[in-house]
Design brief:
heterodimer, A: 452 residues, alpha+beta, 2 domains, 7-stranded mixed sheet, 11 helices, globular, B: 497 residues, PmbA/TldD fold, 8-stranded mixed sheet, 23 strands, 38% strand
Chain lengths: 452, 497
């Protein structure tokens, strides 16, 4: 194993860098440092084509001035003082009307109790990943199929400090697996992620992806229409990624737009459907606090089908007169603001086979691809089905089906749920730092496939 | 290709001495060669982005993001390895080189990379500009954004608005074991203005100069001034207000003229990505997907009608996808991708091209130093035809004019797409009529491009710079597309929203 490529930068170095930046910010402010050192074993065809050791690190200084705040970030932690001074200088140029300084998290915070560090995940090293990739490539090749995928191991660190005296640090392991097997026009896909490598089953995932690829080798067209469907956990997790756009964040609530602002308490989903943001749950990628150093709170978003609450950061929480739920986020090319980052749909008790048995004629969809929100007010979105889809006939999987476009409404789909699977599968949330969505399979009565 | 790089030697950042940068990059290459690599390249990159995004309801976002580090790629016994390191400690560059070797060595034996040596390619390139956007006073930028938001603030139906300015400067140093030494000083900047109107449960957005991250050029501040954001802002607000009152665009089959901003996205999604040779060869199947275009498509596959001519041309100045060298050191080159509707070439790298017995088309690109280069669009444009937009509408007769994306989705083969647009205008007897909302159109890529009857002339041609995502872990790509309005017959129209 390349022990150096995922080495920790360490609490002392990260918090020390943050404090160095704070020293150059006379008007006050906050600094966070994120470090992700990861090894990513990507494979395709008959080889590992992209074995990568990637270093992602950023110190971001948010300095307050008399007319507003400004941020300066650098990947060069040795330049922390420079970043702090630059941020303070930029903040002095601001002329916003608000005379109230931005809020800071208080120093008295309670460390989350969820375990984020697992030595087992550190053992998921380049040699182990390479051997697994070799297993997938060979298994696929034996039946004339092609394997693609990525097995990764990442060490994440987050340090936060502010001029109110807060100092926080956390380290976390992360293992992510994805495997696609293609044969003819068919394909099977599996993915999962978590903090603890022991909780993931790469060999079974390879086996299942291979099985689906073989079963879908000659898929048939599916005519446009409305079908009872079982959506696999990855398809459901994909839908959860829209909860930010649907108005479950404090900025939308403050602006009076979106689901929580306009429809709080309204029954928009079946009573079995509960969706929460919960970074203290061991599922997905738990983490105890956010970029502002605020404890992560459990936020019910859909509570037994009803629109419940939104996630907040310090600024939106103050505007709304509530406490921050610990969901501050800022990303490249993105506006700063609160964002759901650890989404979980409560599982049910059924197996996928149970869900399928409850459909006389319908479709099984394993996952979606390239879904996009069309109108957040109406929760409408479009996308295509991808990889293994099957016709369901008399409660059993039948012929394989080709990819199909669909246009639906998130709340409409969730309102027609009448069964939830018992197993959660986690996947990353695109463009969200440490973001994950974990969901079970669901059965939906009436899902429209085809352009409309 | 400029003989000198004005930015290197100026004061920003840490890599302002070319000789020091060269020493670091060449030491990294040397370390990997000592470790047994048969090929090595090292990219030492320093980058700074400035972002001013003001919005009607929240705190302004004034931000500068700086990053500096090295990415080292090695070929060891026919196996690739890549490692990146922030410029954070002494020896960071040597550590990256050593780790890249470890990554390569850990891979089990498989198909060896197809790689053949090329002569060294050295040179300097700099974005031509008049005014460095980083020298424009912050006060001037903030005044512009305040003015833009004031336009939105005057209208009670406008519930949200965003005014934004962005700028980026970067130094990219490239050294390879083939002896190449390249220095690029790239600058870009742009702007965005968006307004959302809400009335009776209907929320509508209007954007300028484009909806997805606005528009960005590979140019100086003069590019932002040329956008004339202040002049356009009242129109944007008025159109957002008009959209919430507008009737829905009907579904069905219709002839349409698609405006240049929407054509740019259509090129990006259904042409650019579809022609990336790493996708075509299956290297990206596990995440982004594949392509309906096969590796044998050159000279054989009819992608569109005879009116469809698509070129990749990063040599053109002023676009976000312009550069001197790609990220494996290949000089930028102009390449016809589609000629009179037939596929002529791909967006390729040295290795993907070699697997097809071809030369690279210089499309291997990476975001900063952190990530391994992949095939990305560069500056990919639909070449203009003839005629004005008015003449195109006269030719169409009855139909719709659609522009600016509101939503977009396409399958993993880049075949089955559905795009929603911010605006649709009814066109009757060749004359633009009433505004309609919630238009969408969809189709199958070669059928759609096969129905293109005419592309408007150079006077209607516009260039759009936009970000893109690809790879695992995901990296940003910054590309550009040129487009003129085009007339498409018999398009499937839907209702979005």
């Amino acid at each position: 194993m390349s022990s150096s490529s995922t080495d920790l930068r360490g609490e002392d170095f990260l918090l020390g860098s943050a404090v160095n930046a704070l020293r150059e910010m006379p008007g006050g402010g906050a600094v966070f440092v994120t470090s992700r050192r990861g090894e990513y074993t990507r494979f395709a065809g008959q080889r590992i084509h992209q074995p990568q050791a990637i270093d992602e690190v950023q110190l971001m200084a948010n300095a307050f001035g008399p007319g507003g705040q400004a941020r300066v970030a650098t990947s060069r932690l040795q330049a922390a003082r420079w970043a702090g001074a630059e941020a303070a200088e930029l903040a002095r140029t601001m002329r916003t009307s608000s005379a109230v300084p931005p809020p800071l998290a208080p120093p008295a915070q309670v460390q989350g109790v969820t375990q984020t560090w697992h030595d087992s995940s550190r053992a998921f090293d380049a040699g182990t990943r390479g051997a697994l990739a070799g297993l997938a490539l060979a298994a696929a090749a034996r039946v004339g199929a092609i394997a693609n995928g990525m097995f990764s191991s990442v060490v994440t660190e987050l340090a936060v400090a502010n001029t109110a005296g807060l100092r926080r640090y956390v380290r976390a392991t992360e293992v992510s697996l994805s495997i696609l097997v293609r044969k003819g026009a068919g394909s099977g896909f599996r993915a999962d992620l978590g903090r603890d490598a022991r909780a993931l089953g790469p060999e079974l995932m390879i086996e299942e992806a291979l099985r689906d690829a073989l079963a879908t080798e000659n898929p048939q067209e599916v005519a446009a229409g409305t079908f009872d469907v079982v959506l696999g956990p990855l398809a459901v997790g994909d839908m959860l990624s829209f909860f930010h756009a649907l108005g479950f964040s404090g900025d939308d609530l403050r602006n009076g737009s979106g689901a929580v602002a306009r429809r709080r308490g309204e029954m928009v989903a079946a009573p079995e459907v509960c969706v929460r943001d919960d970074a203290n749950d061991p599922t997905g990628l738990p983490i105890p606090f956010d970029f502002e150093g605020v404890d992560k709170a459990r936020v019910a978003m859909l509570d037994r089908g009803r629109v419940a609450d939104a996630v907040t950061d310090l600024a939106t929480a103050r505007a709304l007169g509530v406490g921050s739920s610990g969901h501050a986020h800022i990303g490249r090319e993105q506006a700063p603001g609160p964002i759901p980052a650890n989404l979980i749909m409560e599982p049910g008790t059924a197996s996928e086979a149970d869900l399928i048995r409850g459909i006389e004629r319908g479709v099984y969809i394993s996952r979606f691809h390239y879904t996009r929100m069309i109108d957040p007010e109406k929760s409408s979105f479009t996308g295509v089905t991808r990889d293994a889809s099957f016709r369901i006939q008399d409660g059993k999987l039948g012929e394989a089906l080709k990819q199909s476009r669909f246009s639906e409404e998130v709340f409409g789909v969730l309102a027609r749920v009448d069964g939830l699977g018992r197993n959660l599968v986690s996947q990353p949330l695109m463009n969200v730092w440490n973001g994950s969505a974990s969901a079970p399979a669901i059965r939906v009565r009436g899902f429209h496939l085809g352009f409309r | 290709m400029n003989a000198s790089v004005p930015g290197v030697g100026t004061s920003w950042g840490w890599l302002h001495e070319e000789s020091a940068a060269r020493r670091l990059a060449e030491e990294a290459v040397g370390r990997a060669l000592e470790g047994g690599a048969s090929y090595v390249d090292a990219r030492l990159v320093e980058l700074e982005e400035e972002r001013l995004y003001w919005n009607l309801n929240g705190d302004p976002d004034l931000r500068r993001e700086h990053t500096v580090g090295i990415g080292v790629r090695v070929l060891l016994h026919g196996k690739w390895g890549f490692a990146s390191r922030s410029m954070d400690a002494d020896g960071f560059h040597l550590e990256a080189a050593a780790t890249a070797l470890v990554m390569a060595d850990a891979s089990p034996a498989g198909d060896a990379a197809m790689w053949s040596a090329l002569p060294a390619r050295s040179g300097h390139f700099a974005t031509p500009l008049t005014t460095d956007p980083f020298t424009v006073p912050m006060r001037e930028k903030q005044d512009l954004l305040d003015t833009l938001l004031d336009v939105a603030r005057r209208e009670p139906e406008i519930v949200a608005a965003v005014a934004g300015l962005n700028a980026k400067r970067q130094r990219r140093f490239f050294a390879s074991s083939e002896g190449s030494w390249q220095v690029q000083e790239l600058v870009e900047c742009g702007g965005l203005y968006q307004a959302w109107a809400f009335l009776d449960g209907e929320l509508q957005r209007r954007s300028y100069p484009n909806s997805f991250h606005g528009n960005t050029g590979g140019s100086g501040w003069e590019y932002v001034m040329g956008l004339q954001l202040e002049t356009e802002a009242p129109r944007v607000v008025d159109e957002a207000r008009a959209l919430v009152r507008a009737p829905r665009c009907p579904a069905g089959t219709a002839d349409v003229i698609i405006g240049p901003a929407m054509v740019a996205l259509q090129i990006h999604e259904s042409c650019g990505h579809a022609l990336e040779l790493d996708r075509i060869l299956g290297d990206e199947a596990g995440f982004a997907g594949t392509s309906f275009i096969g590796p044998d498509a050159r000279g054989r596959l009819r992608y569109g009608s005879g009116a469809v001519n698509v070129v990749a041309d990063p040599t053109g100045m002023g676009a976000r996808g312009s550069f001197g060298f790609d990220d494996e050191g290949q000089p930028a080159r102009r390449e016809m991708l589609i000629q009179e509707g037939v596929v002529r070439n791909f967006l390729s790298s040295r290795e993907t091209a070699a697997r097809q017995g071809l030369e690279s088309t210089s499309a291997m690109r990476a975001d900063g130093w952190q990530y391994m280069p992949l095939c990305f669009s560069t500056h990919v444009a639909l070449l203009p035809g003839t005629g004005t937009l008015v003449e195109l509408m006269e030719r169409m007769g009855d139909g719709y004019y659609l522009d600016m994306d509101r939503s977009w989705s396409i399958d993993e083969q880049r075949l089955n797409f559905q795009f929603g647009t911010e605006v649709a205008y009814e066109v009757r007897k060749g004359v633009r009529g009433r505004l309609l909302r919630n238009a969408s159109y969809g189709g199958i890529t070669p059928e759609f491009w096969g129905s293109v009857e005419q592309v408007a002339g150079p006077e209607e041609f516009r260039v759009f710079g936009l970000p893109c995502g690809k790879g695992e872990p995901k990296q940003w790509g910054f590309v550009s597309h040129g487009a003129a309005p085009m007339l498409v017959r018999g398009v499937r129209m839907g209702v979005a929203g």
